[in-house]
Structures are given as structure tokens and as C-alpha cells.
Write a structure and sequence with these properties.
Blueprint lengths: L2 E6 L4 H13 L3 E7 L12 E7 L5 H11 L3 E4 L6 H6 L1 H22 L4 E7 L24 H19 L4 E6 L1 E3 L8 H13 L7 E4 L5 E2 L1 E3 H14 L5 E4 L5 E2 H12 L4 E4 L17 H7 L7 H15 L4
Parallel strand pairs: 1-2, 1-4, 2-3, 4-5, 5-6, 6-11, 7-10, 8-13
Antiparallel strand pairs: 9-12
């Protein structure tokens, strides 16, 4: 019998790459995708038998109906407002949406007594501002969330732990670091850089300066194609109730990344700060340890940062218009 996956946020960037990875395994699987938005990417699969329902997961009754009818073996929870910048502009919407849709899902799994493994996807933003002496950060590090988005992710994590410990729900948790790759929306910083550089390279924008936010911050970037492999391995091998960092273990400043992207696309630009792009409180440095997930599952990232950057630039060169 085919394994059944329920993927929330199935119209998004990560879900598309997860489906591509399932297809690459060449093992027939059933996937039900749910999202508040319609699917916008092509579905050309031979081994992934995909169906889709467009719903708002804040609707408890519809969520219950879907879970009751489909009864998944695995639930990959990707649905969220995933932009930190958006959470500063719309803190109430970001918190209520991200917390409530997860609570609706996990509680319906409890009430229906489903034999279903849930992957609760969290964020490195939960760690907040940490000192360099704490690097690379492990799962045992204290959480100091410093944005509305991060607080919502901590709330989801705490709910996960309660449902795993007290209700016996089979939940595995992640703290996923900054994942990047082709197809990511331009609201995320690396994709935003790539789109701007592609527009300049093609002559759509004439300028000698690129405007940025705070590019002194250091981040741990991991390719989305490695991330989805980690999600798959955790659904199969992760330990119930445990939290896993999904990260590269390497730190790069946004300035260094932007300069590397200019080198790849062969453009030299001045860099200037746009104060409107600077967040009220930005984590200065975050580099993770992936030792725990490696020891438990054998997962390690395999795609170099430069390969990710080249693929992101190629994506935008193919997707911005030419003169």
C-alpha cells in the first residue's frame, strides 16, 4: 500500500522541492496538498500521485474533514507566514495564523486518534540574539525569540512538545535555518538580491548601486534541496518528541554572499543601506550545529553555497523579462 503524505502549505517553495525529492525516489506515494492559495507550479510526476484542496487551515471543521477522510501516514506542516519582515508589519496576523493553524491540525490528529507522524517545522529565529561563545548553536541553547515570527514559532514548538509528551502524538520537530534555492520568493533576502542583479544584468534597471538592509549579519544558509531530504529522513528516522537543527554549520555575512553573487553574475555595484529594509531587531549572528541530526539519521548537507547561489541567479535570469 502506498504511503500517504499530507503537506500543508503545498503551494509554496519548500513543498515543491519536497515533491520533487519524493519523485526522485521512484517509489509510488500518495500526496494530498492543502493551501490557502492555489498551486502555481507544474505537476509533472510519475511516482507522486498528487491531489489538492484549497482551504484555510484556521477553519477547524474543514481541517477535521480532510484529516478524517485522508488519514495520512505523514503530515509535513509547512503552512505559515514565513517572512520575519512580514511579522514586523503584521504581528497579530503572523502570530495568530502560525499558531492557530498548527493547533487545529495537531488537535484534530489527537481527536481522530490518527496513526500519523507529524513534522513540526520551526526556525533558527527561535534562538534570537546569541553570543559568539555559544556558536555553533545546539538544540540545547536557550531560546530568545526577538521577532513576532520567532515568538509564533516558539509557541508552535511548545505546543508540539505538549502534544507529544502528554497526548502521545508522534511529532518530530525542526529548527530550520535560512534555506535558499531556485524558486524562492523575492521577499527573502538572497532571492531578492538575485532578482535585482538579474534585472540589472538584463538592462531592465540602470543603476550602479544596489540597496540593501543590514548586510553585516551572519547567517547559516542551507540549500532547500538538502532541507527537504532532511525533512524526509526525519519523517522516517527522527525520534519522537525530539528537536533537530537543519543547518549547514557554516556562517556567511550577507555582504559576503552579495559580493559572491556579483562575482557569479559578473557585475560590480556600490552597496547602500535602505533604512526601510532594516528590521527593528535583527539577530547579529547565527550558525548552527547539525551534529544531532547526523548522529540520529546520517543527514548532512551536500550542496555548496556557491552552487545554490548560481542556481538562484540562473532561476531569476530565466524568469525576469528581457528588453
Amino acid at each position: 500500500m502506498m504511503k500517504k503524505y499530507l503537506i500543508t502549505g503545498s503551494g509554496g517553495f519548500v513543498a515543491k522541492h519536497f515533491l520533487d525529492y519524493l519523485e526522485s525516489l521512484r517509489v509510488p506515494v500518495s500526496v494530498l496538498g492543502v493551501d490557502i492559495h492555489p498551486i502555481s507550479y507544474p505537476l509533472n510526476y510519475s511516482f507522486v500521485f498528487f491531489s489538492f484542496q484549497q482551504i484555510d487551515l484556521q477553519n477547524k471543521e474543514l481541517t477535521n474533514d480532510i484529516l478524517k477522510e485522508y488519514r495520512p501516514d505523514y503530515l509535513l506542516h509547512l503552512a505559515s507566514f514565513s517572512s520575519v519582515a512580514y511579522s514586523w508589519i503584521n504581528p497579530v496576523a503572523a502570530f495568530v495564523n502560525n499558531s492557530n493553524i498548527f493547533l487545529n491540525l495537531v488537535d484534530q490528529v489527537r481527536l481522530l486518534k490518527l496513526n500519523c507522524r507529524i513534522l513540526s517545522v520551526g526556525s533558527s529565529e527561535e534562538y534570537g540574539n546569541i553570543s559568539e561563545t555559544e556558536l555553533p548553536v545546539t538544540e540545547k541553547c536557550a531560546l530568545r525569540p526577538s521577532s513576532p515570527y520567532a515568538v509564533a514559532r516558539v509557541s508552535q514548538e511548545m505546543l508540539s512538545e505538549i502534544y507529544a509528551k502528554n497526548y502521545g502524538i508522534d511529532i518530530v520537530l525542526t529548527r530550520s535555518f535560512n534555506h535558499i534555492g531556485p524558486g524562492q520568493k523575492e521577499v527573502f533576502v538572497i532571492s531578492s538580491f538575485a532578482k535585482k542583479l538579474a534585472e540589472i544584468k538584463k538592462g531592465l534597471v540602470v543603476t550602479d548601486t544596489i540597496m540593501t538592509g543590514n548586510i553585516s549579519v551572519v547567517r547559516d544558509f542551507v540549500d532547500v534541496r538538502d532541507v527537504v531530504k532532511a525533512y524526509h529522513v526525519l519523517l522516517n528516522k527522527g525520534t519522537k518528541g525530539e528537536i533537530y537543527n537543519i543547518c549547514s554549520g557554516k556562517g556567511n555575512s550577507l555582504r559576503a554572499v552579495l559580493l559572491k553573487m556579483m562575482e557569479i553574475i559578473d557585475i560590480t555595484l556600490n552597496i547602500s543601506t535602505d533604512e526601510l529594509l532594516v528590521r527593528p531587531d535583527d539577530n547579529k549572528i547565527i550558525i548552527g550545529s547539525n551534529l544531532k541530526i547526523y548522529e540520529d539519521t546520517g543527514w548532512r548537507p551536500s550542496i555548496p553555497l556557491e552552487t545554490s547561489l548560481k542556481d538562484i541567479i540562473d532561476y531569476w535570469m530565466d524568469n525576469v523579462p528581457s528588453l
